[in-house]
Amino acid sequence: MPKQSTIPTFADAFAYSLDAWQRSVLFLDVMRRRGEQYEENTRHRLLRTC
């Protein structure tokens, strides 16, 4: 039976960092979209009250 290593390899570390980077970009994109929606809704409310 081959001995399994529990030490992460460079490829594992690279895959993890790439995944974390991609998730960060997706999170920031969602936050940007939510911010734009919030500003648009707030702008419409301000225009209705004037």
Write the layout of secondary structure elements.
Elements lengths: L9 H40 L1
Task: Please provide a written account of the structure.
Helix content is 80%, strand content 0%. The chain has one helix spanning 10-49.
Q: What low-confidence regions span 5 or more consecutive residues with pLDDT below 50? A: none
Distance between the termini: 77 Å
Which quaternary structure do these chains form? single chain
Q: How helical, in percent, are the residues?
A: over 70%
Class derived from helix and strand content: mainly alpha
Measured by DSSP, the beta-strand proportion falls in: under 5%
Coarse shape: rod-shaped
Number of helices: 1
Number of strands: 0
Secondary-structure element sequence?
Answer: H
User: What does the main sheet amount to?
Assistant: none
Mean pLDDT: 89
The radius of gyration computed from the alpha-carbon positions, rounded to a whole number of angstroms, is 22 Å
Key attributes of the depicted protein:
single chain; 50 residues; mainly alpha; 80% helix
Concise structural overview:
This protein is mainly α. It has one helix at about 10-50.
